[in-house]
Amino acid sequence: MSEISASMVKELREKTGAGMMDCKKALTESSGDLDKAVDLLRKSGIAKAAKKADRATTEGKIASHINETTASMIEVLCETDFVAKNDQFSNYCDELCLQVSKNYSTTGDLSETVKNDQQNAIIDLVTKVGENIQLRRALRWESNANCASYIHMGGKIGVIVEVKNGSNKEYLNDLCMHIAAFNPLYLSPEEVPEPVIEKEKEIAAAQPELIGKPTEILEKILMGKVNKWYKENCLLKQVWVKDDKKRVEQVDPNATILRFVRWQIGEEI
């Protein structure tokens, strides 16, 4: 068998768009025959998937899974809403989310791990549906508290939340819907990084009506604006979706919201 050189791998990559390791493997199997290597990549679907890999993926589906001890959520992107509603694509997303919950022991962001594990499955799905498919995010929590999830607009928005002493299902479901609707950035003011607060102050201080104000007065005005920002962007301080006379933190005094995640298809990470 002839030696597989770097230039041969490069040429095959340029022809097919496939990854370096896939090209090297195909050249090895074809004993260095470039045309046969191209055929091998095409038959496996790798070449087809690689050619679609640069096409924009602005649609897709978010799926979630909750059981007694874990909560998981995944986001898979595709090119069109037509494929996003396709049964093969949708079933793949649901099954993958179940796998993330059951087959992994790590907790937290599993995006890169699951991407690597799903390479062949994604190639197979690209071949079946004919569009670029990208696994964007995967998350898994382990929890001794109560978790709930909510999927909105057929998978365009996904929410999972973890609450201690919050066993009321109606409250948990309403909390998820609130997060989906109001899109809080942080759980509480204490979680907001100092640079974010300083940036908000800087933006507020630049308003024409505040220029030239005495320092003490200006600081009070800026803190008032920051507190208003907290009420818009911190979950616990937001007005409750079902009662505008209550803040989220007042809805169930016995419940402690530990964490939440809200994803939306195609948003900036």
- Element-by-element helix/strand order: HHHHEEHHEHHEEEHHHEEHE
CATH class of the domain at 57-142: Alpha Beta
Could you name the ranges where pLDDT drops below 50 across 5 or more consecutive residues? none
Q: How would you write the strand order of the largest sheet?
A: 1-2-4-3
Structure classification: alpha+beta
Count of separate DSSP helical elements: 12
Instruction: Output the CATH homologous superfamily of the domain at 57-142.
Output: Elongation factor Ts, dimerisation domain
Largest sheet: 4 strands, antiparallel
Strand content: 15-25%
Shape: elongated
- Count every beta strand, where a strand is a DSSP E run of 2 or more residues: 9
Query: Whole-number radius of gyration?
Result: 24 Å
N-to-C span: 47 Å
Task: Give the helix level as a range of percent.
Answer: 40-55%
Average pLDDT works out at 91
CATH topology of the domain at 57-142: Tetrahydropterin Synthase, Chain A
CATH architecture of the domain at 57-142: 2-Layer Sandwich
Name its key features:
single chain; 269 residues; alpha+beta; Helicase, Ruva Protein, domain 3; Tetrahydropterin Synthase, Chain A; four-stranded antiparallel sheet; 12 helices; 9 strands; 22% strand
Any overview of this molecule?
The longest helix is centred in the last third of the chain and has 19 residues, at 215-233. The chain starts with 5 loop residues before the first helix and ends in a 5-residue tail after the last strand. Among the domains are: 6-52, Ubiquitin-associated (UBA) domain (Helicase, Ruva Protein, domain 3, Orthogonal Bundle), CATH 1.10.8.10; 57-142, Tetrahydropterin Synthase, Chain A (2-Layer Sandwich). With 269 residues, it is α+β, with helices and mostly antiparallel strands. The protein is built from 12 helices and 9 strands. It has a 4-stranded antiparallel beta sheet. Strands 5-6-9 form a 3-stranded antiparallel beta sheet, with helices on one face. Strands 7-8 form a two-stranded antiparallel sheet.
